[in-house]
Each structure stands twice: as structure tokens, then as C-alpha cells.
Write a structure and sequence with these properties.
single chain, alpha/beta, Metallo-beta-lactamase, Chain A, Arc Repressor Mutant, subunit A, 2 domains, seven-stranded mixed beta sheet
Length: 327
């Protein structure tokens, strides 16, 4: 088994397993809780042996290896958070597995992630711009799951024992978490908040970088609403899925909000000089074609939808639509 760095100690009964890098295609952080005589996990990491080895190495270092895994809570169904479930379940039998109800279809049929990632939109827009749509690893149609596998962060079928929704409670040892539905990055993304301990397990909502977002996952509008929802909470520590523990929660949330709103302002400003097509806007904000395909296209689409709904811009034409300020 590969030896990894010691887990990060947050409290005596709460540890973080941090991968070598906070960036894709590395795993998300995995959080370990003492839970009575057992342990519970928040997320499990990528679908490969490395994250599972890292988990068992951490349990060995902590002296927790003999403890039974009681609960696994998944922040959302993306491969860097829940892809390791299949490998992990070949080794352990947790009593309960939690997942938000809106992410259940993607857990049961990972192929459906093509929908929440808006890959059909990406292909349509890319083709309309005259670019060749990326091919699959074997030269066929581009599909997400083979792409994930090629990067060493596979996704797998996941069957939760129960689904959760906004306002539900989850007890983990001495922690009493409230479930907050925080879409934008994923339809069923959740964050967990303990008002007594004043900690927020943020998932991908707040962390090292702004998570990408797509219209089908809630887009820029839902992402901002999610941030506003948790911004009012009394939080001493944010435990992100990517990056280090955050102590200044208000500042961290403000920075993420500002970066999202900066894209809104940039689009409106770009349109002040005249009408622009989707392609022209994409070239302004996402220079590289590989980034344009994903996540550039769905991010831009979600901002255009938001700005149109707010009456800040308008769209004219159909096949060759142009965007301009509303006033």
C-alpha cells in the first residue's frame, strides 16, 4: 500500500485526507469523523485505487482501521467526490449512505451526468461555431465516463440507502448537521452545517477555486443563491472539498460571489460596444478551444440566461442569435 502524508487534524474527532493537489483530476478532500464506536465519511474521492489506499493509510495512522464505517455522506455525484464508492464497497459495508434526492438519477445511472454537465449543449454550440467536437478515447462520440476513466478518476454506480433534502438533519458522533441544498455546480449538491460547532462542510461551493457551473445544474443564478444561503450562517471554519481549511468564511464566500458576478459585469460591458454572438463572447472569456467546449460553453450559457431573466441583456435572431444590452 502506498504511504501518504498524515491526515490533517481539524479536531480530535475530525480529520481531513487531503490529496497532493486541489485541482482536477485529483480527488476531493475526504473528511473522517469519529462516530460512536465507528467512523463516518464526507465524500470518498476518485474512482481509482490511490484515494482508497490513501483512506486506509489514514485510518491506519489514526488507529481507526478496526472501526466500522457507519455513514458515508456524498456532497454530490461527481467522480472526484463519489467515484471511489465501488472500490470502497468491495472492502467495507457502511450502514448508511446519504445523497441528495436530486442527484439520485446520476448516481443510479452515471451516464446521465451527460445531462447535468450539459454536454449536448456543448456539442451543439461547438459544432455551430465550426469546430470539431472532441472525440471519445476510441474515436467515437465524446462520452463523459470514458473521459473520467482515462484521467484516472472514474465514476461508478452508487446506491444510497437514503436520500436527503433541504432541512434534514444528519448526526455524526457529536456533530449535528443541518442539510443545505446548494445547487449550481450539481443539481443535488449539498453542504452540511453544525450551528453548535459552527463548521460548514461546503463541498465544491467554496474552496480553492470557483467550481464550474452549468444551466442544468442550476447555473450562475443558483450558485449565487446557494452562496447567499450560507453567507448568513455563523461559521468559524469552512471545510472545503478542494484546498485548505478556511477560517475567514465571510471573505471566502465574498470572493467566490465576486468572481461569478464579475462574469456578469464583463458580459454587459462587452456588449456596450455593440451586438455580439455567442462565439464572440466565448472567445472573450474563454480563449482556449479545449476550455471553450467545457466548461466555457455551459458557464457562458448560464450567465446569458441569468442576465436575460434579469432584463439586463436581450437576444435577437434565432440560428445566428446576437446579444445586446436591454437599454
Amino acid at each position: 500500500m502506498t504511504v501518504f502524508e498524515n491526515p490533517v487534524s481539524i479536531f480530535e474527532d475530525l480529520k481531513m485526507i487531503r490529496p497532493a493537489s486541489p485541482y482536477w483530476p485529483e480527488s476531493a478532500n475526504v473528511y473522517l469523523f469519529q462516530d460512536g464506536e465507528g467512523i463516518s465519511l464526507f465524500d470518498v474521492g476518485c474512482g481509482s485505487m490511490a484515494p482508497v489506499d490513501r483512506l486506509f493509510s489514514a485510518l491506519d495512522i489514526l488507529g481507526w482501521k478496526s472501526r466500522r464505517i457507519q455513514k458515508i455522506i456524498l456532497s454530490h455525484v461527481h467522480p472526484d467526490h463519489s467515484g471511489a464508492m465501488e472500490i470502497l464497497l468491495s472492502e467495507v459495508s457502511p450502514e448508511r449512505i446519504f445523497l441528495h434526492e436530486y442527484d439520485l438519477p446520476y448516481a443510479l445511472e452515471p451516464e446521465k451526468l451527460m445531462v447535468s454537465f450539459d454536454i449536448a449543449l456543448c456539442k451543439k454550440r461547438f459544432s455551430a461555431m465550426g469546430y470539431e467536437v472532441p472525440k471519445g478515447s476510441k474515436g467515437g462520440e465524446f462520452e463523459l465516463n470514458p473521459y473520467f476513466k482515462a484521467l484516472g478518476c472514474s465514476m461508478c454506480h452508487v446506491e444510497p440507502t437514503e436520500t436527503v433534502a433541504e432541512g434534514d438533519d444528519i448526526r455524526i458522533g457529536d456533530y449535528h448537521f443541518q442539510v443545505f441544498h446548494t445547487p449550481g455546480h450539481a443539481p443535488g449538491h449539498i453542504s452540511l452545517y453544525d450551528p453548535d460547532k459552527r463548521i460548514l462542510l461546503a463541498g465544491d461551493m467554496v474552496g480553492e477555486m470557483v467550481a464550474w457551473y452549468t444551466p442544468s445544474s442550476g447555473g450562475a443564478a443558483s450558485y449565487l443563491e446557494s452562496l447567499e444561503k450560507v453567507e448568513v450562517l455563523d461559521v468559524d471554519l469552512i471545510l472545503p472539498s478542494h484546498g485548505d481549511v478556511i477560517q475567514d468564511s465571510k471573505e471566502a464566500i465574498r470572493k467566490i460571489k465576486d468572481k461569478i458576478l464579475e462574469k456578469d459585469r464583463g458580459i454587459v460591458e462587452a456588449l456596450q460596444s455593440g451586438q455580439k454572438s455567442f462565439e464572440e463572447l466565448l472567445n472573450i472569456f474563454f480563449a482556449l478551444p479545449t476550455v471553450q467546449f467545457f466548461p466555457g460553453i455551459p458557464i457562458l450559457e448560464s450567465h446569458l440566461q441569468k442576465l436575460k431573466s434579469e432584463g439586463k441583456i436581450k437576444e435577437s435572431g434565432e440560428s445566428n442569435a446576437l446579444y445586446e444590452p436591454s437599454t
